[in-house]
Amino acid sequence: MSQLRLVVAKPGLDGHDRGAKVIARALRDTGVEVVYTGLHQTPRQIVDTALQEDADGIGLSVLSGAHMTLFAEVLRLLREEDAADIPVFGGGIIPAGDIPELLALGVAAVFTPGTPTKEITDWVHTRLGRVTV
Question: Looking at the whole model, is its pTM more than 0.70?
Fold first, then answer.
């Protein structure tokens, strides 16, 4: 069985990446290969990276308030590239009222501040399920 590979990205102009780095490290500690794209990525850059890296999933961290636009654009570009089978999940400062709409758009899961990292890593392994923890 091949190693699970995820792209973790910070879309948009938000410059706060501590949470994304914590999640990337937690995923690596459970055997996931993580490609961290760094700050200020466009949705196109994120999708291109996921395709180039043959990613099994994309994790987005959004604190800027632009989550509805950024998640929707990543999902649109994945559909455009015939790669809608790549699950997109994410977290950040996302109002509870926006979560059902994000899920309806096709976001696989949304994690808000305070979510234990183990809950996130367990979800990744259960949902994407290619690595034994």
Answer: yes
